[in-house]
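[09:14] KT: can someone run the structure on this one? pasting the chain below
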Amino acid sequence: MAAKYKKAFGRVLKQAFPKEYRTLLDETEQHFAYISKDVAFAARSANPMDRRLGFSAYFLSLIKAMEKSGEPYDAIRRVCLAVATEYVRPKNRLQAFLKRLPPKLIGTRIGRLLTDALHKKVSVKGHEDGFEAHIITDKAETYGLGYGVNITACGICKLFDKHDSGKYTHILCEVDKITTSLAGLEMYRTGTISGGAEVCDFRYRKK
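[09:31] RB: done, structure tokens below
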């Protein structure tokens, strides 16, 4: 997994900074060697949401490297979103199908079983610095879909705040829109923890 997301970073940086990308990648790796220690628990966590923290730590490492090179906020945001798009985009028809499959299972028997199993795992913190979330299945609260997510503890916010980079956290919140769109859904949120809310309330509608 690490090799795959690092390749996406490399491709985007080479296009955005053809002369400096190797230096940026080296700087990113140096920051990651330090920052990754804070998310070492993620690979063993019982909460599957924590698995995204390795990817997030690499994002933070890139942000630190770009800050050091003097890149402005808008450039950092643009590159980060380009990396996310490159990483999550389907590379073939099978991947595209698999990304659109979960919404189709909502409301089915297997979908309910998977949702119940997921709720049990994500509603308990695997680590104090990780995630905690609750799956919402009430159709009245989820635009009739029967599936939503309330994140009550955000591991990404904790990681970025620890490294004095809280102002960049919401860039990763924007990534959620990209992944949701690939699933054939539209995402709605009234607030995010990175924006000061107590809960990130993910709600969806089918396109």
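[09:33] KT: thanks! The helical segments are 2-16, 21-35, 53-68, 73-88, 93-105, 109-122, 155-162, 169-182.
[09:34] RB: yep, looked fine to me
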